[in-house]
Amino acid sequence: MQKQKTFSAVIVAIFFFGSAFSFTVKAQSAPPSAPAGRQAIEVRKAAFALIGNSFKPIGDTLQGKIPYNQAEVQKRAARVVLLADWVGEAFPDASNTGLPDTKAKPEVWSDRTTFDKRLSEFREHAATLAKVSATETTASDAFKTAAAAVAKDCKSCHDAFKLK
Ligand code: HEC
Question: Region 48-71: what's the mean pLDDT?
Protein backbone atom coordinates (compact mmCIF):
# COMPACT_ATOMS: atom_id res chain seq x y z
CA MET A 1 0.00 0.00 0.00
CA GLN A 2 2.70 2.45 1.09
CA LYS A 3 4.81 1.41 -1.86
CA GLN A 4 1.92 1.93 -4.23
CA LYS A 5 1.34 5.44 -2.88
CA THR A 6 4.97 6.37 -3.40
CA PHE A 7 4.80 4.89 -6.87
CA SER A 8 1.75 6.97 -7.83
CA ALA A 9 3.40 10.06 -6.40
CA VAL A 10 6.35 9.44 -8.69
CA ILE A 11 4.04 8.96 -11.67
CA VAL A 12 2.23 12.19 -10.85
CA ALA A 13 5.55 13.99 -10.49
CA ILE A 14 6.72 12.67 -13.86
CA PHE A 15 3.51 13.83 -15.49
CA PHE A 16 3.71 17.19 -13.85
CA PHE A 17 7.30 17.96 -14.70
CA GLY A 18 6.98 16.21 -18.03
CA SER A 19 4.07 18.40 -19.12
CA ALA A 20 5.72 21.52 -17.71
CA PHE A 21 8.81 20.67 -19.73
CA SER A 22 6.96 19.94 -22.96
CA PHE A 23 5.00 23.16 -22.49
CA THR A 24 8.25 25.12 -22.28
CA VAL A 25 9.55 23.41 -25.40
CA LYS A 26 6.30 23.98 -27.30
CA ALA A 27 6.15 27.60 -26.28
CA GLN A 28 9.48 28.11 -28.01
CA SER A 29 9.08 26.03 -31.14
CA ALA A 30 5.42 25.54 -32.13
CA PRO A 31 3.32 28.22 -33.84
CA PRO A 32 1.77 30.13 -30.96
CA SER A 33 -1.75 30.30 -32.41
CA ALA A 34 -3.64 27.99 -30.03
CA PRO A 35 -2.01 29.11 -26.77
CA ALA A 36 -2.18 32.75 -27.93
CA GLY A 37 -5.89 32.30 -28.61
CA ARG A 38 -6.58 30.77 -25.23
CA GLN A 39 -4.51 33.42 -23.52
CA ALA A 40 -6.41 36.17 -25.35
CA ILE A 41 -9.70 34.70 -24.13
CA GLU A 42 -8.45 34.67 -20.55
CA VAL A 43 -7.20 38.23 -20.85
CA ARG A 44 -10.40 39.64 -22.30
CA LYS A 45 -12.61 37.82 -19.80
CA ALA A 46 -10.49 39.10 -16.94
CA ALA A 47 -10.49 42.61 -18.42
CA PHE A 48 -14.27 42.57 -18.89
CA ALA A 49 -14.84 41.19 -15.39
CA LEU A 50 -12.80 44.12 -14.04
CA ILE A 51 -14.60 46.55 -16.34
CA GLY A 52 -17.89 45.26 -14.92
CA ASN A 53 -16.59 45.59 -11.39
CA SER A 54 -15.24 49.10 -12.03
CA PHE A 55 -18.32 50.37 -13.81
CA LYS A 56 -20.94 48.98 -11.42
CA PRO A 57 -20.78 51.81 -8.83
CA ILE A 58 -20.84 54.34 -11.66
CA GLY A 59 -23.97 52.69 -13.05
CA ASP A 60 -25.50 52.60 -9.58
CA THR A 61 -24.72 56.30 -9.15
CA LEU A 62 -26.30 57.02 -12.52
CA GLN A 63 -29.46 55.23 -11.43
CA GLY A 64 -29.51 57.12 -8.12
CA LYS A 65 -28.96 53.96 -6.09
CA ILE A 66 -25.89 55.41 -4.38
CA PRO A 67 -24.78 59.04 -3.89
CA TYR A 68 -22.28 60.61 -6.25
CA ASN A 69 -18.73 60.34 -4.96
CA GLN A 70 -16.39 62.24 -7.22
CA ALA A 71 -13.17 60.53 -6.14
CA GLU A 72 -14.73 57.08 -6.56
CA VAL A 73 -16.22 57.83 -9.96
CA GLN A 74 -12.96 59.36 -11.16
CA LYS A 75 -10.89 56.42 -9.98
CA ARG A 76 -13.21 53.87 -11.51
CA ALA A 77 -13.62 55.70 -14.79
CA ALA A 78 -9.81 55.75 -15.11
CA ARG A 79 -9.78 51.99 -14.60
CA VAL A 80 -12.36 51.48 -17.33
CA VAL A 81 -10.22 53.57 -19.70
CA LEU A 82 -7.16 51.44 -18.99
CA LEU A 83 -9.01 48.14 -19.27
CA ALA A 84 -10.85 49.14 -22.45
CA ASP A 85 -7.46 49.71 -24.04
CA TRP A 86 -6.46 46.16 -23.09
CA VAL A 87 -9.62 44.70 -24.59
CA GLY A 88 -8.58 46.12 -27.96
CA GLU A 89 -5.70 43.64 -28.08
CA ALA A 90 -7.67 40.67 -26.82
CA PHE A 91 -9.60 39.58 -29.89
CA PRO A 92 -6.91 38.23 -32.26
CA ASP A 93 -7.98 35.87 -35.08
CA ALA A 94 -6.46 32.96 -33.15
CA SER A 95 -9.06 33.44 -30.42
CA ASN A 96 -12.04 33.06 -32.74
CA THR A 97 -13.59 29.65 -33.30
CA GLY A 98 -13.24 26.19 -31.88
CA LEU A 99 -12.16 27.35 -28.45
CA PRO A 100 -14.22 26.73 -25.33
CA ASP A 101 -15.07 29.17 -22.57
CA THR A 102 -15.75 32.21 -24.68
CA LYS A 103 -18.99 34.07 -25.12
CA ALA A 104 -17.72 36.19 -27.97
CA LYS A 105 -19.93 35.70 -31.03
CA PRO A 106 -18.31 34.81 -34.38
CA GLU A 107 -19.56 38.22 -35.57
CA VAL A 108 -16.64 39.83 -33.71
CA TRP A 109 -14.46 38.48 -36.53
CA SER A 110 -16.96 38.32 -39.42
CA ASP A 111 -18.08 41.92 -38.84
CA ARG A 112 -14.84 43.28 -37.50
CA THR A 113 -15.45 46.80 -38.80
CA THR A 114 -18.59 47.22 -36.67
CA PHE A 115 -16.97 45.58 -33.65
CA ASP A 116 -13.93 47.86 -33.86
CA LYS A 117 -16.24 50.86 -34.22
CA ARG A 118 -18.18 49.85 -31.07
CA LEU A 119 -14.93 49.37 -29.24
CA SER A 120 -13.50 52.72 -30.23
CA GLU A 121 -16.76 54.50 -29.29
CA PHE A 122 -16.59 52.75 -25.93
CA ARG A 123 -13.01 53.91 -25.41
CA GLU A 124 -13.88 57.45 -26.43
CA HIS A 125 -16.90 57.59 -24.11
CA ALA A 126 -14.93 56.10 -21.21
CA ALA A 127 -12.24 58.76 -21.72
CA THR A 128 -14.93 61.47 -21.76
CA LEU A 129 -16.39 60.11 -18.53
CA ALA A 130 -12.96 60.19 -16.89
CA LYS A 131 -12.49 63.80 -18.01
CA VAL A 132 -15.97 64.89 -16.92
CA SER A 133 -15.66 63.25 -13.50
CA ALA A 134 -12.42 65.16 -12.93
CA THR A 135 -14.42 68.39 -12.76
CA GLU A 136 -17.98 67.42 -11.77
CA THR A 137 -18.56 67.53 -8.02
CA THR A 138 -22.20 66.37 -8.21
CA ALA A 139 -24.27 63.95 -10.26
CA SER A 140 -24.71 66.73 -12.80
CA ASP A 141 -26.24 66.43 -16.23
CA ALA A 142 -22.73 66.35 -17.67
CA PHE A 143 -21.89 63.32 -15.49
CA LYS A 144 -25.16 61.60 -16.32
CA THR A 145 -24.74 62.11 -20.06
CA ALA A 146 -21.16 60.81 -19.99
CA ALA A 147 -21.97 57.78 -17.81
CA ALA A 148 -25.09 56.91 -19.80
CA ALA A 149 -23.08 56.93 -23.04
CA VAL A 150 -20.72 54.32 -21.58
CA ALA A 151 -23.58 52.19 -20.20
CA LYS A 152 -25.21 52.25 -23.63
CA ASP A 153 -21.95 51.05 -25.20
CA CYS A 154 -21.86 47.99 -22.91
CA LYS A 155 -25.36 47.03 -23.88
CA SER A 156 -25.18 47.66 -27.60
CA CYS A 157 -21.93 45.73 -27.98
CA HIS A 158 -23.21 42.82 -25.88
CA ASP A 159 -26.44 42.65 -27.88
CA ALA A 160 -24.50 42.31 -31.12
CA PHE A 161 -21.30 40.53 -30.13
CA LYS A 162 -21.74 38.57 -26.90
CA LEU A 163 -23.65 35.37 -26.35
CA LYS A 164 -26.12 35.47 -23.46
C1 HEC B 1 -16.96 46.45 -28.05
C2 HEC B 1 -17.76 45.44 -27.40
C3 HEC B 1 -18.00 45.45 -25.91
C4 HEC B 1 -18.17 46.53 -25.08
C5 HEC B 1 -18.18 47.99 -25.44
C6 HEC B 1 -18.35 45.98 -23.76
N7 HEC B 1 -18.30 44.62 -23.78
FE8 HEC B 1 -18.47 43.39 -22.18
N9 HEC B 1 -18.05 41.79 -23.38
C10 HEC B 1 -17.91 41.82 -24.75
C11 HEC B 1 -17.66 40.49 -25.25
C12 HEC B 1 -17.46 40.10 -26.70
C13 HEC B 1 -17.63 39.64 -24.13
C14 HEC B 1 -17.39 38.12 -24.12
C15 HEC B 1 -15.89 37.83 -23.91
C16 HEC B 1 -15.58 36.34 -23.93
O17 HEC B 1 -16.30 35.57 -23.27
O18 HEC B 1 -14.62 35.96 -24.61
C19 HEC B 1 -17.90 40.50 -22.96
C20 HEC B 1 -17.94 40.03 -21.64
C21 HEC B 1 -18.28 40.81 -20.55
C22 HEC B 1 -18.41 40.31 -19.19
C23 HEC B 1 -18.21 38.86 -18.75
C24 HEC B 1 -16.75 38.63 -18.38
C25 HEC B 1 -16.49 37.20 -17.89
O26 HEC B 1 -16.28 37.04 -16.66
O27 HEC B 1 -16.50 36.26 -18.69
C28 HEC B 1 -18.74 41.38 -18.40
C29 HEC B 1 -18.96 41.39 -16.89
C30 HEC B 1 -18.81 42.54 -19.27
N31 HEC B 1 -18.52 42.16 -20.56
C32 HEC B 1 -19.12 43.82 -18.82
C33 HEC B 1 -19.09 44.96 -19.63
C34 HEC B 1 -19.38 46.28 -19.16
C35 HEC B 1 -19.83 46.66 -17.75
C36 HEC B 1 -19.20 47.12 -20.22
C37 HEC B 1 -19.34 48.60 -20.28
C38 HEC B 1 -18.78 49.41 -19.22
C39 HEC B 1 -18.81 46.28 -21.36
N40 HEC B 1 -18.76 44.98 -20.96
C41 HEC B 1 -18.55 46.78 -22.63
C42 HEC B 1 -17.99 42.94 -25.54
C43 HEC B 1 -18.09 44.24 -25.08
Answer: 98
